[in-house]
Amino acid sequence: MDRRSFLKIAAGTGLAVALPRHARAALPPYKGPFYVMISARGGWDPVYLCDPKPKGTFNRHYDYDPADPTAIGDIHYADIPVPANLVTDPMSLPYLMKNADFFAKYASKMVVINGLNMATNNHDRGVVTIWSGRGDGGYPNFAALVAATRAPEHPLAFISGGGYSGTGNLIPVTRLNSVTSFRKLAEPNRVNPADPNNTTTYLHEDTFARIAQAQQERLAAFKAKQNLPKIEAAAGQLYLARGNLDLLSSVALPDTLIDMPNEMGDLERMAQQTQLAMAAFTAGLAVGVNLELGGFDTHANHDTVQVRQLAKLLWGIDYVMSQAALAGIDSNLIVMVGSDFGRGKGYNGMDQGSGKDHWPVSSALFLSGNPGLLGGGGRVIGATTEAEQLPIGINPDTLELDESEDGIILTAPHVHLALRELAGVAESPAAKKFGIVTDMLPLFG
């Protein structure tokens, strides 16, 4: 690409401040921290995960005694079995992870927030709230905010495979749902980019390069004639996107994609998106990624469906962490797991097939291969009452439970303000543009 033309177009689109001083080939790789946002879409049940309750109104599936809890250190969990009849194909069982196994493996690397008041029972508002810190829309996903601050010029700075992908127009979002679709985008001249052994191209490389150059020149000429800012900006963004194809093709994608039984299709998609995310991270082209697993809206068959989806989710989180470890970036990775809201309070019927309805009180999990990034692992902040499943306030300084009127009820704005501080972007122009007004709590040290 002609550097003079590149900079001219970029300046015209208002992107000059985000461009490197040297040629694009010298774009420095982003080296972390990396952020993975995992959405349990539909409203999960923390009572069946990290906020256990005794058998009764809220739980009829496992035994729990607060006086003698099932716990790893300070983190209590619901000791729910994973019976074989949760799936129809026995080959699916290895892709389900029990709470006991998950917390035994990750409790020391984890921060749990319970009693999180989402202030909504609405799915759309809940999804926006948990990932942006505001429920009224327009605010960026936390990972997008960090990407816009740390590496706005990188072509895959913020990847979304589902969940809330709002960016506040700070940066583009890359919507890639699979490694196959990425290969097609990154190598448009390959006849079959999904086959690593087939290097056949539609055109000779020199011919393809001349066509690409002609497209860029035509696009630059088109942009130069535009007077409407939106059309001019869109043309410039397309110019930049096309110019990044060589960087995209440098991503070392896995030759073999994870394959699961048909009934595990939702988890397979999440796992394949994880493979793509790790490739983008290790290439230094991405800052954050959204992943999503649905199926948590359990108004019926709660004790079967919720348990199965949670077991899938925990396997998926474990896969993210293990793939990050294989890539050598787990100690430079922060994972957040959340949901639209919680479920409860209690069941909506007396029979075994009854479910739980929407409940605004939820939880969130944070993990890292280096718990020091989280201000220390093995911690639980917040709680809910046993009688009403309502949030209990905390002391804003010590984070200890405080049931007096001085106790602060945890909310998504509290979490996101602390996350911004953790990521070192709280004073960035992007964060100030999308300000969050609430108490600053030392959730992550």
From TrEMBL:
InterPro entries: DUF1501, TAT_signal, TAT_signal_bac_arc. It holds the Pfam family TAT_signal. It comes from Nannocystis exedens. It comes from the Bacteria. This is Uncharacterized conserved protein, DUF1501 family.
